[in-house]
Design goal:
CATH class of the domain at 85-104 and 224-400: Alpha Beta
Shape: globular
CATH topology of the domain at 85-104 and 224-400: Rossmann fold
Oligomer: single chain
Number of strands: 13
Strand content: 15-25%
Bound molecules: pyridoxal-5'-phosphate
Length: about 425
């Protein structure tokens, strides 16, 4: 399998998986995608429901990596990465929550970050030298990446996050690591942080001095493992039709779902659920894509005004609006609706959701009636305890705090504050430690 840029429609510049992971962004500014999607045979599909999570992960991922990682090595990686529970919680006859937050940092990004860290550390070992990883975060990416890469030999991580835009708990999970993890507090928005990361990766002279890559959801190594839980959810419900509502910001999560479906996982329909940063739902309705500066919301990990993975979605559907519309509906929701959804989930089902999962629920609720035969699964992307203020505002009590989150809150922060200038960021990333 080779990988191509979304801006290389004629497949003229294929690269290996490892090169795509190291480069992060393609030199032409596009995002890497598999040059073809392997199709699961009928027999394979029948096998999936009988597998455990790490075996299922291996079946989904091996076709992409078989030239570059041995089967036994990939089995080991999958066992290390997919080693926490993935509950599919039934709330109603046709409504379920897929809880993706049982990893070390309590958000779904643990899947991608842990997988990428293991791939990169093997690569650093193979090629020698040091790899520097830069990542922009609106909250949960950074902590998942830090946890995944902490003390991994040969790797230094720089986390860029927007000052004052992440919750206090999230900030603790970004800034208290030390060792090979440096947290950079940028006096700007998440979009600024993302722009800085992109320009570092596109900087050829920097690339000559240090081996640099990104651990954002633009990185292929983050994207691929996210296909696995869609397959796992389907495998559990395989006697039914299944639809997914995905609370989305940068749209990596949803893109992975679309890829799993394109490989043959039978999915009836997808809903792209957003907060008021709804440029993709608007595109789905109107056929016009109009990025704009992001607005701050309660579901802050989805405050993205120009989602990077939209380019991958266009690529998957051959840039045809109608084809995308057939697979995918979109809906954006306000903070007031999000709080109401949290109350509804608790009132009806005794279920405590975080604000992102609540947006996913709203997406499912909006389209439930259009797909009456489907089991509607919304992705619950973070543990509610990551957003105690919002949970309290909606429900009047604080969510239960898992021990591993409490432990972060007691540690000392050690971030560097930087002005919103690429020059300063570049300086820090270049600095020899
Ligand atoms: C990152 C994040 C999202 C958005 O995921 P994308 O892949 O960027 O669309 C949703 N919920 C939570 C809790 C997140 O951390």
């Amino acid at each position: 399998m080779k990988f191509i840029s979304t801006r290389d429609p004629h497949h003229e510049r294929p690269v290996s998986f490892f090169d795509a992971v190291l480069q992060g962004l393609a030199p032409d500014g596009g995002l890497y995608m598999p040059d073809t999607l392997p199709v699961l045979t009928e027999e394979k599909l029948k096998l999936l429901p009988g597998l455990n999570l790490s075996q299922l992960a291996f079946e989904m991922l091996y076709p992409f990596l078989e030239n570059e990682i041995s089967a036994s090595e990939l089995i080991t990686i999958c066992e290390e990465v997919f080693n926490f529970p993935l509950p599919l919680v039934r709330l109603d006859e046709n409504l379920l929550s897929l809880e993706l937050f049982h990893g070390p940092t309590l958000a779904f990004k643990d899947f991608g970050a842990r997988f990428m860290a293991r791939v990169l550390s093997r690569l650093a070992g193979q090629r020698g030298g040091e790899i520097r990883v830069v990542v922009a975060t609106s909250g949960d990416t950074g902590s998942a990446v830090a946890a995944g890469f902490y003390k991994v030999p040969g790797i230094k991580v720089f986390i860029l996050y927007p000052k004052g835009r992440v919750s206090p708990g999230q900030q603790k999970q970004l800034t208290t690591w030390g060792e090979n993890i440096t947290a950079l507090e940028i006096e700007g928005s998440f979009d600024d942080c993302q722009r800085h990361v992109k320009s570092l990766l596109a900087d050829a002279s920097l690339q000559q001095q240090v081996q640099l890559t990104s651990a954002n959801s633009i990185n292929l190594a983050r994207l691929l493992p996210q296909m696995v839980y869609y397959a796992a959810a389907w495998a559990q419900l395989s006697q039914h039709q299944i639809a997914f509502s995905v609370p989305s910001g940068n749209f990596g999560n949803l893109t992975a779902g679309l890829m799993a479906a394109a490989m043959g996982i039978p999915v009836k329909h997808f809903v792209a659920a957003t907060n008021v940063n709804d440029v993709v739902p608007q595109y789905l309705h109107e056929g016009i894509y109009q990025p704009r500066p992001s607005a701050t919301t309660l579901s802050n990990a989805m405050d993205v005004g120009n989602p990077s993975n939209f380019e991958r979605m266009l690529h998957l559907f051959g840039h045809q609006h109608q084809r995308m519309q057939q697979r995918l509906s979109g809906a954006g929701f306000t903070d007031v609706q999000t709080l109401q959804a949290m109350q509804q989930l608790y009132g009806r089902y005794g279920y405590v959701a975080d604000p992102h999962g609540a947006v996913g629920y709203l997406g499912a609720a909006q389209y439930l009636n259009q797909y009456p035969d489907a089991q509607f699964v919304f992705l619950e992307t973070a543990h509610p305890a990551k957003f105690p203020e919002t949970v309290n505002r909606a429900l009047g009590f604080n969510p239960e705090m898992p021990e591993r989150l409490q432990a972060f809150l007691e540690k000392k922060e050690q971030q560097k504050v930087l002005p919103n200038e690429i020059r300063k960021v570049r300086e820090v990333v270049l600095m020899l430690h």
